[in-house]
Amino acid sequence: MKQIPALTLKVIILAGATSFFMGACTTAVDQVSKSTPPVSQYANATPLDLRLSALPYPYPTKEFKAMLGGQSVGMVYMDIAAVGKQKGVVVLFHGKNFSSDYWAPTIPALTAAGYRVIAPDQIGFGKSAKPDVAYHFDDLAKNTHALLISLGIKKTAVIANSMGGMVGVRFARLYPQVVQKLVLENPLGLEDYSKDIPPQTNDNLLKLEMAQTEVSYRRFLQSYFPVWQPSFEQFVEVYVRVQKGSDYPAYAKTSVLTYQMIAEQPVVNDLPQLKMPVLLIIGQKDRTVFGRRFAPPEAVKSLGNFPELGRKAAQAIPNAKLIPLDNVGHIPHIEVPLIFNQAVVSFLNSYPR
């Protein structure tokens, strides 16, 4: 395992982000900016439906017919061509709180470096279908593989953030012949949540989700970042617009079902099975604890220590390199996009490709 010295960041570079289950992950309140907009900032905003039909994405979207829980469901994705001669393909896995549109700061750097980019909304997220079924990481991985096969893609690199890291690990384990390189950006799943977080019923989780407010959601989203940027407000707006729509109960139910997937299906034991080159990019200010509100106080003290989790993951993965980023939180690619993009492109361009 090779570790790159931590990068001390004196300037936080702006970009974008979107939605999550209330209270599933939080960090120290003292890291959050004290200034927050008025409660009713989006009172007159236009509601969004279950599939965010009226929400523009940074690139044109297409739809692939996938399967989940025995149902045929629509999986929306962006397919962005490389600039100039194509070196390879990169698939992007978003987090539970997000959709593929939050990769907007990353995609131009990848395409400019010669990579075709496939950015799907996983089933249950973003513009994709949200069936009322049990969700499994294996199913999300299999649907992504089916999408790639439909596009004639046999080899790809993967970049994965937060919950997407859990999908990315499972995808790489199931399809090692497909994944050439794997980038894990502050991934969830570097610890087994089922050991410390008591199980929750769907009914209890749904009540909490339905009680979410603009203020509580903003507070939750702020917990991801050491410094809250005004540009991040756009993602609060998206959540509020979904909540104002008539489809919000179904949206909330899907959030509950995907919460259970994370809680019940750990991937930390898969790490030693990853044989491809792996780059771990870990924001050192991240203290995200999945299901924190349900954890015993003594467990909270030991969970979500991403500096330590990153080091342990780099030791567990046979061919791993670790880049720690000082003064960065849970989503480096929108907090410090230039630094993130440079590290990722350098890794993708290195041999073997």
Structure summarized in a few sentences:
The chain has eleven helices and nine strands. It is an alpha/beta fold.
Molecular structure report:
Mean pLDDT is 90; it is low at 8-35. The protein has a single domain (2-349), classed as 3-Layer(aba) Sandwich (Rossmann fold). By secondary structure, it is of the alpha/beta class. The chain has eleven helices and nine strands. A nine-stranded mixed beta sheet has the order 1-9-8-7-6-4-5-3-2, with helices on both faces.
Search tags:
Rossmann fold, alpha/beta, AB_hydrolase_sf, AB_hydrolase_fold, globular, 11 helices, Pimeloyl-ACP methyl ester carboxylesterase, AB_hydrolase_1, monoacylglycerol lipase activity, 9 strands, 353 residues
Tally of individual domains = 1
End-to-end Cα distance: 19 Å
Tell me the major beta sheet.
9 strands, mixed
Number of DSSP-assigned strands: 9
- Overall CATH architecture: 3-Layer(aba) Sandwich
Main CATH class: Alpha Beta
Q: How many whole angstroms does the radius of gyration measure?
A: 19 Å
H/I helix tally: 11
CATH fold-level name: Rossmann fold
Order of SSEs: EEEEHEHEHEHHHHEHHEHH
The geometry reads as: globular
Question: What do the pLDDT scores average to?
Answer: 90
The CATH H-level superfamily is Alpha/Beta hydrolase fold, catalytic domain
Structural class: alpha/beta
Portion of residues within helices? 25-40%
Biggest β-sheet: strands ordered side by side in the sheet: 1-9-8-7-6-4-5-3-2
Strand content: 15-25%
**Low confidence ranges:** 8-35
